[in-house]
Amino acid sequence: MPGSTFGRILTITTFGESHGPGIGVVMDGVPPGLALGAQDIQRELDRRRPGQSAITTPRSEKDRVEILSGVFDGLTTGTSIALLIRNEDKRSSDYDNLKDLYRPGHADWTYSAKFGVRDWRGSGRASGRETAARVAAGAVAKKFLSARGVTLLGYSREIAGVRAVRVVPEEIERNAARCPDPEAAPRMIEQIEKAKAEKDSVGGIVEVVADGCPPGLGDPVFDKLEALLGHAILSVGAVRGVEVGAGFEAVRMRGSVYNDEPYMDGDRIRTRTNHAGGIAGGISNGMQIVVRAAMRPPASISKPQKTLDTSGKPVTVEIAGRHDPCIVPRAVPVIEAMTALVLADCLLIQEAYRGSR
Amino acid sequence: MPGSTFGRILTITTFGESHGPGIGVVMDGVPPGLALGAQDIQRELDRRRPGQSAITTPRSEKDRVEILSGVFDGLTTGTSIALLIRNEDKRSSDYDNLKDLYRPGHADWTYSAKFGVRDWRGSGRASGRETAARVAAGAVAKKFLSARGVTLLGYSREIAGVRAVRVVPEEIERNAARCPDPEAAPRMIEQIEKAKAEKDSVGGIVEVVADGCPPGLGDPVFDKLEALLGHAILSVGAVRGVEVGAGFEAVRMRGSVYNDEPYMDGDRIRTRTNHAGGIAGGISNGMQIVVRAAMRPPASISKPQKTLDTSGKPVTVEIAGRHDPCIVPRAVPVIEAMTALVLADCLLIQEAYRGSR
Amino acid sequence: MPGSTFGRILTITTFGESHGPGIGVVMDGVPPGLALGAQDIQRELDRRRPGQSAITTPRSEKDRVEILSGVFDGLTTGTSIALLIRNEDKRSSDYDNLKDLYRPGHADWTYSAKFGVRDWRGSGRASGRETAARVAAGAVAKKFLSARGVTLLGYSREIAGVRAVRVVPEEIERNAARCPDPEAAPRMIEQIEKAKAEKDSVGGIVEVVADGCPPGLGDPVFDKLEALLGHAILSVGAVRGVEVGAGFEAVRMRGSVYNDEPYMDGDRIRTRTNHAGGIAGGISNGMQIVVRAAMRPPASISKPQKTLDTSGKPVTVEIAGRHDPCIVPRAVPVIEAMTALVLADCLLIQEAYRGSR
Amino acid sequence: MPGSTFGRILTITTFGESHGPGIGVVMDGVPPGLALGAQDIQRELDRRRPGQSAITTPRSEKDRVEILSGVFDGLTTGTSIALLIRNEDKRSSDYDNLKDLYRPGHADWTYSAKFGVRDWRGSGRASGRETAARVAAGAVAKKFLSARGVTLLGYSREIAGVRAVRVVPEEIERNAARCPDPEAAPRMIEQIEKAKAEKDSVGGIVEVVADGCPPGLGDPVFDKLEALLGHAILSVGAVRGVEVGAGFEAVRMRGSVYNDEPYMDGDRIRTRTNHAGGIAGGISNGMQIVVRAAMRPPASISKPQKTLDTSGKPVTVEIAGRHDPCIVPRAVPVIEAMTALVLADCLLIQEAYRGSR
After folding, report:
1. Deepest of A55, B84, B311, C229, by most Cβ within 10 A of its Cβ?
2. CATH number at residue C152
């Protein structure tokens, strides 16, 4: 089945299963002449990798990336860039007792129904591990955006009901929750630890803000910027909702409140509020682009759950394995990566038409 | 710029501006042999068309559809289907005083920034009028789905803070708010009328439920069913957020609560709850598919608003024209249409691989 | 089934059957700000339209184009451009006696096999009439290219074994054969008339030359310029082969002869010969781009032919109707159009990456 | 730049340079449940690999393939299949003296013009070595087709003016020229050796025949089967022309001769001749599909040639390195692979619509 390619002229095509030889991505459409080294990608992978803190899964993957193509003498060549990450700490045996049942909240049953065959080792292709490939590609997109003055900031806006009220950028990478609010951070971590102790899991909200985007990104009708972002972000495993700007809160606003008032800031048009989240009519307006992803609690919990085995018989399962009690902190670089990929693609498309005027 | 095509093997390509000769759509990939007449499409267009009730814009468009191709002797031929709707009640002069300014909350400034030129008559291509083409195509998708046992139900889940608590299907088309709850309906309408009287506008939430979907729809990684739905629905003008199943509420659930418990219902696997909204691992699981769109209040209000003219000078604008104080009721068939198009596309892709096993 | 869309960021989506209400095209990705009027398109349609000379079909279609969208105040807006051509001189009754048989050399049987249903009136979607939509879109692409200094010249290089030896550009539109060689032209016409008198048909070769293309058009691996041209041109009904530069003659050349020797012409790199047809490694090199299409003789002939009816019974058929004894002269603008569409698409892609350096 | 992805629902995305770490491909859309092992792919790679005979380049690459994903317990899982081939015998130093000049007939100058940067080691991405990835993917496509009763046969129809008159299938892999005619084979080899001795190179024609294709493959208008084949095959480095069935010979035929006469063969419709090459109206008709690729002589020859260095100064070059005097025999599996990929993609698309009837 299709589904492993995303993008319009900057595309990524990913591959790999949780417990196969490795995972990776082929990126096509990266402009030539961009300085790129493995360390640019490694930095982002390290933010996503398992085992990075006490509140993430102890699966120990170094996630070392190898650049297989598309870079020569430290510069991108304009041809397809392949990135490979070998799987190292595979304990497929952890899954031996799971292969004959459908874990609740997982893709086990739907993959079986769809494909007839299923790689049961750690969810196979449906594993969150596939997002490492996204993060690797996102690192390249970020590098390109950064050279164009576009920077991204991602963080946990909410975890287990605890909300970050302030955004202190330098705080984010200082705490295991990737919370931008120094007061909220310990409370988030506490909630995650509590859930873990109770063999349960919790959800939250990732927020990504993009600064420096020129007006004009996104295309009319079906390729509105929020539509592309929605596609990109809702394709990340645990995401159940996406919103831009005021998002679901806009639902209860009056038009006179929601409409952002434009004014001149020097020779630039800005708006006094940013309910639009930097996107009007599907096209960036030069303000901050703000997007949020609602992430459900991870499906794998060690609490006993009722489910079915593959023959349809009721069984109770306690999922041992090595799992994250909350995926939000590790999802931050993933949502950033997807945002970066969409923005870079839109920037290139916009360039095509700007150049032609 | 691209952006007017959506879909993978069932595609739609739309065209048309609010005040140009007409709008329309070319659908490609509709299976041959499907009974289809103009009346099938007209029925859906009538649900979206302006002037259908006291709480919608009085612009009088009959939205008569003409089938230009792809149907012969009452059956689809398998070749591209073109549908044309002429614009009739164009009062471009309404916009004469607006052409030199940027209306707040509209795409005026972003379209100018992106394209250099702008069709200022009624928002041109950025007008909500383009959704008529989506509804026309969606009618065809619904016809196909219906022949396969898949039916869709859409309604206003919330308007101006008033929430529908019950869903009584036959109630929906009986009230101007398309509210499924007979108690909430008059209160929704009251809120819309109040906003209108106060020269303002209100937002709300459209919910669409799909029944009868087989397991297996959606594809791994980037073409997860919720990602395709997110793309489709966030591309509709006023939508600021999309969620499936428990959506943003999942954020505060524990895994032990969120995970839907599977059980056997005869020879079918079902789940006791449906927090997943019918989608697990990006693939339909045979339960109801549930999707919601957050719609902001319409940007056009007649209350005075501060803005800029195209030279950057501050001005105050009162948007007269003919506008909807709330777009939610008319958006119901649009969100249904986008859902139908995604499901039909996924069903065809799934067929390709089922057939090949 | 899919198949009605072509292009990467400049796309065309066509619709329409030979004897339906009309045919047309939606073009997406045309840059904004391009001066465009119906007359720009009409001029090209007139070169393709039936009944233009004594050696073409007498079907009388004025092929008047209507611009339905994407143009405002005489300029393209950057949004999708829809073009509609109504069918006028439909004599579907001509086909009454053909609907129950499979005409030799036609798509009657394959369309039946593929679709189950078939629009038997004048080949339906498989009719050469669909190329009017291509020519209309090609006219827009040509306008864009022309503004960028790229011009196209198409002509009949060979008809019924008569070859044009010289290319005198101004001669081409002066004779009904669109032959660039004043000596060969009357002999080509004579051969066409002879075939017509003998109730038969003849084939030939269309050649298109593009001048002024910058180096850099086309993309590595699968989107080499010749591959895109091949796709575009082999999709035209009667084309059975495509070649670029020396083409099939290159097969018998030695490398030392085939390799074009580069030299400096002022500050430009040129080559002394152009066996490559302006494309090296899949990418334009700044020399003339030369492409040729091999066109088979039209399938519709009035000579008696043995065939099968739809029940499988052998029958003899004489196809009366109104047909072209040779399609080559009318195919010239079609092959030009497809070439123009590919070049314009490549130019925009190239712009995206040039702008990003 | 884009260009590294091909296909509609069965897609391949390739990567890799001649002298980088390796080359490979990600295939998406392969049906689940297909038995697949490395040996299935290796067999085809061995037919393409360098150093297989006295008349090919002595570069010694074992071209060992590693399956990185998409296969579990010997069966395809329906998810993306990644295949990696490491480069082993890289002698980049061979190219040290070439990095500052533009080799005649190569992509050196066009890649420089397009990308600004260039991987000069053995043509980088423009190297024929990228076709190993195509062959690997083609092996999977062949496996799928074979399970559906479709088989492919490829061979050298012509080399250096020597034409194979007969096609004896079992002869093909017996001689280094992959010539199906035992009389022509030694003469082809002799011509290749002669060219090699004279430090020159020769071209030829690859023909591929597909047996067992059901009617219905290919889609209307732009995705006609011959158009997809043309795109696929013209994207192979040295191909300068493509034709199907009678191809360029159809140009001199009369319609009464070209039209294939249908007859009933039991309950199957067949045609007495096959000038159409198994494709009518862009759709397979159940007869043999016949396609031919015109291959120019390789650009790398050791004969002295005049060219330019990268500063524009005239120089003379003798290309030492390790090169093929004729690429036709090694191109046979490449053209087969591209044909297989197109047919498999069309078969899946057809399945989608057959299933939906």
Report:
1. C229
2. 3.60.150.10
